[in-house]
Write a structure and sequence with these properties.
- The protein has one domain: L-fuculose-1-phosphate Aldolase (3-Layer(aba) Sandwich), CATH 3.40.225.
- The chain is 41% helix and 15% strand.
- It has helices spanning 3-19, 76-85, 98-106, 115-120, 136-146, 166-189, 197-211; strands at residues 29-35, 38-41, 57-60, 65-67, 91-95, 151-154, 158-163.
- A 7-stranded antiparallel sheet has the order 4-3-2-1-5-7-6, with helices on both faces.
- The two termini are 13 Å apart.
Amino acid sequence: MSEQELRRKLVALGKKAFEYGLLRGTWGNISARLNKDSMLITPSGFEKAALRPSDLLLMDLQGNVLRGRWKPSSEAPMHSLIYRAREDVKAVMHTHSYYATAMAVVGQEIPVLTSEFASAVGHRVPVTRYAVSGTWDLAEEVVRALGSGKAVLLRNHGVVAVGDSLEEAFQTALLVEDEARTFFLANSMGYAKPLGAEDVKELREAYLRNYGQEKRRLTLKL
């Protein structure tokens, strides 16, 4: 994919995430890997619903701006370190969605409650230790807690979701928020009973077998 096409898709995703309530105001950030050595990332202080492709910054994975007139997101260290640690990751979303952030504040991991979450995500969402926003300490803690997974809660902060495409990162962020809301609502009526590890494994394997990494695609048009 060309740089210009990736810029267009990332900006479209920012608008869609804003519409879905995953991002509000100037908070949150999105990036996409351009190649093995660089990424496009949203600028600091911009409402994602108002971004233009030319507003995005091109950065290397050591934190240097290669092209762009604005200041990059303060969470650029976190994005770059994730790409350095995970060659499979092509997009990163950092959101402040309501229910998932509430769970991050109380330090409650999101268990696997639904077959949909087991299939598409396939693991509980852990909570990082607290670290100051925008620091390499936070970046390292996110990479540690994320491991080979698709999402993690940032203690007292928000959510990080990753994917092999912008569409998958968006889908994961949306599912994390939905699962957090399900956890809250189920506990308000009784006890939210998570799926067992074997059930999660079976659902995840069936999902990958039946749909495949290349075939499954969110109906999100970017």
